[in-house]
Write a structure and sequence with these properties.
It is a single chain. By secondary structure, this protein is mostly helical. The chain has 2 domains: 42 residues, no CATH class; 103 residues, Orthogonal Bundle (NinB fold), CATH 1.10.3790. 52% of the residues lie in helices and 11% in strands. It has 5 helices and 4 strands, in the order ααββαββαα. The strands form 2 sheets. The chain has a two-stranded antiparallel ribbon with strand order 1-2. Strands 3-4 form a two-stranded antiparallel ribbon. Helix 2 crosses helix 3. The longest helix has 19 residues. The chain starts with 11 loop residues before the first helix and ends with a helix.
């Protein structure tokens, strides 16, 4: 087996079917070697208030700060800044050689972030803003008040 599967069990009624499926899949996987089965409580995924907070902040940074791309400072889209901040959270960036010979960074997706990691991303953007004199827009500040109340 080369992939990880996750099933969430919310009731006792769900338990039997998931255990049977896990046993079948583990049996098939054992043909290729040992299989690991993990049981844990689910972690909280990012909140809607966190999602609403991210884009006004990224827009403010993109409007006020230039990003050095290919050695040249230039104005970049909020999506580009999102990539920069998201990869900054990782202790190790995975890189692959692109089909055209360029470099591709792998694996940094906010859609896969848990609540704590997404909160760290927002704090990182605030820290960058404070260090670089970013003036937060009314929209970013309004969402911040909502975010702070929800946290």
């Amino acid at each position: 087996m080369s992939r990880e599967l996750t099933y969430q069990i919310a009731t006792l009624r769900d338990l039997g079917g998931v255990i049977q499926m896990a046993a079948r899949m583990a049996g098939r996987g054992l043909e290729a070697g040992p299989v690991e089965l993990v049981l844990r409580r689910p972690t909280e995924i990012r909140s809607l208030s966190q999602n609403r907070k991210l884009w006004p902040m990224l827009s403010d940074v993109a409007e006020q700060q230039q990003l050095v791309i290919d050695g040249v400072p230039e104005w970049a889209a909020p999506e580009d800044w999102k990539e920069v901040f998201t990869h900054s959270l990782r202790k190790h960036q995975r890189m692959a050689k692109g089909i055209d010979g360029g470099v591709v960074l792998l694996g940094a997706r906010t859609s896969r972030m848990k609540k704590k990691e997404f909160s760290d991303l927002i704090e990182l953007i605030y820290a960058y803003g404070a260090a670089n004199d970013v003036q937060w827009s009314e929209k970013a500040l309004a969402v911040f008040d909502t975010y702070r109340e929800a946290a």
